[in-house]
Design goal:
The chain has 12 helices and 2 strands, in the order ααββαααααααααα. The protein has a two-stranded antiparallel ribbon. Strand 1 and strand 2 form a beta hairpin. The termini are far apart.
């Protein structure tokens, strides 16, 4: 397995160099063109103070997320082509080990460019006027890197469950938003039905990028020399991180099970995995209906989106009777939900 890793790593050296250059330039340009010392209003003393620009540091989790979200789609694209998957599966190595090697290559293509770019950005900061505690940047980068492993696991799981690259990217987007939309729907139902609002379960904490942003919210303020004025970590961040860790482990075991059961002839066929269109389109349609909470033009626009998602899934505009019935049923359920939610005061 180690020899296979070395082989793939050597083949991806050019990609690693290119990604490292892109990430380094992005960090250098964004940090280098920003004001690192700014005037801010302190609510505790009700006065304007001079402090470090912590907002610009959000560039680190954002760029890291883009790497963790998109790199797996390139590294696992071999399974979306019949020739590619036949070549890979003909290698004298167990399929589980092959995917593990590819996942490790993914991590290299994410972590190495991020670490190189981040460390170089510290020198950019040192060349400018700043009020940062530079000693805290290393643990900040390490925590983001560890968190990115979970994001990569989840995005990889979403991608490999599909049979074409487009389906893989769409499924990754579903995973990015569907939990947040579902949490929002749950909160609305709880408030409407029981007049209870969950203060520590917030929808914005459950996008796929949210764990990295939570790390930023909790750790980045410590980079300021007077961090007490900026520290911002809440219980909802802790709950979201716990959920994210559980989802990461779930993605690992779900991927392992899928890899063992998958057949090469599925490549380029309709993506019929349960962890994909079949599950996420109905969840999306119903959760959106609860979020809209009434029957209006916006609700029907979302139902049109639902229809086109089935078109994308089945690769034809004229749906079979089964799926036409499903779409009609989802529209009916959405209207009923909208009317019911609007009636509840």
């Amino acid at each position: 397995m180690f020899n296979l890793f070395k082989y793939f790593f050597k083949k991806r050296i050019n990609v690693l160099i290119a990604l490292s250059v892109i990430v380094t330039v992005a960090f250098a340009v964004i940090i280098g063109t920003s004001r690192l010392v700014i005037q801010q209003y302190d609510t505790t003393i009700r006065d304007t103070i001079t402090g470090p620009n912590l907002y610009v540091l959000v560039v680190y989790p954002i760029i890291l997320f883009f790497l963790a979200f998109f790199v797996p789609s390139f590294e696992f694209s071999f399974k979306m082509k019949k020739r590619g998957i036949d070549q890979m599966y003909s290698l004298p190595i167990k399929r589980e080990k092959l995917y593990l090697v590819k996942f490790l290559i993914c991590l290299c293509e994410i972590v190495i460019p991020f670490i190189i770019g981040s460390l170089i950005s510290i020198f950019v900061i040192m060349s400018m006027e700043h009020m940062y505690n530079l000693a805290m940047f290393i643990p900040f980068f390490l925590l983001l890197t560890v968190c990115s492993i979970g994001v990569t696991l989840i995005s990889s799981c979403a991608f490999i469950h599909q049979n074409t690259e487009i389906d893989g990217v769409v499924n990754s987007f579903f995973v990015f938003v569907v939990l947040a939309i579902s949490v929002s729907a749950f909160n609305i139902l709880s408030f409407k039905l029981f007049d209870y609002k969950f203060k520590f379960v917030l929808p914005e904490d459950y996008f796929l990028i949210s764990p990295l942003i939570s790390i930023y919210n909790g750790i980045a303020p410590l980079l300021g020399k007077d961090y007490k004025n900026y520290y911002n970590w809440e219980i909802n961040n802790t709950i979201a991180i716990i959920v994210f860790v559980l989802l990461s482990f779930g993605a690992f075991f779900l991927s392992y099970y899928h890899i063992k059961k998958e057949k090469s002839e599925y490549s380029q066929q309709i993506s019929s995995s349960l962890f994909g269109y079949r599950l996420f389109i109905p969840i999306f349609a119903i959760a959106i209906s609860i979020n809209v909470s009434e029957v209006n033009v916006l609700l029907f626009l979302y139902q049109i989106v639902t229809y086109f998602l089935y078109v994308l899934y089945l690769r034809k505009f004229k749906l079979d009777k089964k799926y036409a019935l499903i779409v009609a049923l989802l529209i009916l359920v959405s209207v009923v939900i909208g009317l019911a939610m609007h009636a509840i005061k």
